Amino acid sequence: MAEAENTYLKTMESRLMWLSHWMIHNANNVRPKVDGIKIGGHQASSASMVSIMTALYFSALRPEDRVAVKPHASPIFHAMQYMMGNQTLEKMQNFRGFDGVQSYPSRTKDIDDVDFSTGSVGLGVAITAFSSIIQDYIAAKTWGEGLPLGRHVALVGDAELDEGNVYEALQEGWKNDLRNCWWIIDYNRQSLDGIVREGLFERVEKIFDAFGWNVIRIKYGVLQQAAFKEEGGEKLREWIDACPNQQYSALTYQGGAVWRKHLMDDLGDQGPVTALIEKRSDDELAALMENLGGNCVQTMADVFQSVKDDRPTCFLAYTIKGWGTPIAGHKDNHGGLMTKAQMADWQKQMNVPDGQEWEKFATVSDPDALQEWMDKVPFFAEGTRRYTDETLTVPKIEMSSDREISTQMAFGKILDDLSKGDSDLADRIVTTSPDVTGTTNLGPWVNRRKLFAREAQADAFIEHRIPSTAKWEFTPEGQHIELGIAEMNLFLLLGAAGLSHSLFGKRLIPIGTLYDPFVSRGLDALNYACYQDARFMVVGTPSGVTLAPEGGAHQSIGTPLIGMSQDGLAAFEPAFADELAAIMEWSFSYLQRNGEGDPDERTWLRDETGGSVYLRLSTNPIEQPGKRPDPDWKQGAVDGAYWLRRPGPNCEVVIAYQGSVAPEAIRAAGHLAEARRDIGVLAITSADRLNAGWTAAQRARARGQSNATSHIERLMQELPPHCQLLTVIDGHPATLSWLGAVQGHRTIPLGVEHFGQTGTINDLYRHFGIDADSIIQKINGLTPGRKVKRA
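The chain above was modelled as a monomer; its predicted structure follows.
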């Protein structure tokens, strides 16, 4: 590396070190405190990453590269963006405050150029593998030709290697011929509660090697490398290699004089190595011993530049946690912060004048030269790297409803119909599933659109003419990515694919399927994908105790509540095929929206901003409603509900159902109509959208918009006060129990609250009290009026 380049890197390293730590100090000790809680900010974790990030961003990266920053290195990232003009002083000064720089990098909350949100450790690491796979997927398509292939980089805290999803992603990467992926491990050997166990690096290297990664260990900085070449240097190297992690950390914290005593006690009177130690001052000796590879910007830059191929690479960079600060090496420094006195002394050590703490070039001797160098840094040369793509036209989607069919089967039929067409939308759909492709009705789509692989792979069953419904042909043109049984990987892949328009300027329509009970197994990754505003459709099927023969382990209960509570995700549970068709047609548009503006006054939902979609489906084929006499049903299905049977003016009971229990609700209503007046049946397709619109309308009224009325309020506003509601769902009853609060009607909520078991659908519906007879029994026993015989 040229000397001038190294000088600029060292200068930038110093600037990032200061600005990041001052931002944290300002938030904790200078800015007026409103709450009595610690603000925090992870000074020590930032310090251990500063050399790595300086070398990476200012020497190695190119604009097409993408980076997931270790959550606790967020201050370094934002200091860097501030230096480059992508972050404001006001937001830096308001670090961890409302509308200020976020605690951890956020695509949706920060204004600077965040590639991947991080925060839940391990997920930012793994998503880079899947974003690289998606990059290859796009590049293999005719509409993706010419896409520049960038490296997808994760800056990894060594404690993140405790997360199981990291290893799930490693295996999936190996199966999908992963390339152009770097994981740079900040091996500071300290976590929140203590020191990392000895020898971890050996296990890490073996694991990565087993999955075909190149592993580069970066243990020594340029000072140590030079010292090792001196007479006696080999003895020093042996001592460093043998020193336990706890010992090294403790000596680092105590400084040069203690380093000297300990080294002399261990190595003294051994001739050349004693001279090597003695010829350095205490400060020089401390600088030498703390000059590990990951804390040496020159070493890191040289190592990055040495990698020329596209093989996935793990860099194991040894660092000192808190490097260069008064709290370096202390075992409590993860959550610890420099005191005011320590910061004052450190400010003098960093040569930052009082009053110039926020100045970008406060300690720079030639600001113009540094700015000129910064302007030429390749990674930042093209400005921020948020792209977009044209909106795809959604073809008309309709489903015949003249026979019994399940919503899962209807979903497969809709996709199969799309696969036969030539729409741009169908060409951009990418499906994926964790080893349940066939059993979630993706088979016909996959047979026509094939599976994706960078290199074509023939189906041996086809070659040998063995009959099979699955034609598993792998090809670069394929539009299905098959995953192993790991729901975290499913949602990470959906998250990566759902950001394709922003990361690569090429829009995908990702659709993932999984068994509904196992949504919970991938919940952290689902939340992570939604937090990044990734756009995808996830289909949970089969669901509920309706999956009767499978038993309690495969029968979902709480997933409707997950759908309601998950931000960025519109949850639906249609009962009929035509409802599903209407919802999917709307969803394909919703996934692509990115608008601003006021909520739709019809529903008070922010549909123009778009989001992801969750469909909870069933394998139970049920009789379809046939031709609809009410033209409003389709819009109602999208908005969340419609009257399947309109209540009369003296309605005594309304049965409101969601999902596969529709036949039970309809049958019960038919029997009740013999004795109860004007009974109504409310078909709910999305408790999520109804509830969100209702609460949004209430907020609008509280702000003075007195006419704000949500969709569910309009549906229920003509019900007489004495009318009683019965809600029923194959899921937790709390999903619908709030409906009574909309207009003040007494409500009887039915649903499933306990683990299921094997049996027939009738057995389990009766056991959990969600069958027609149970509905009638509850209405007989809990509402006034004539009693009705059971169905």
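The first strand starts at residue 66 and ends at 68.
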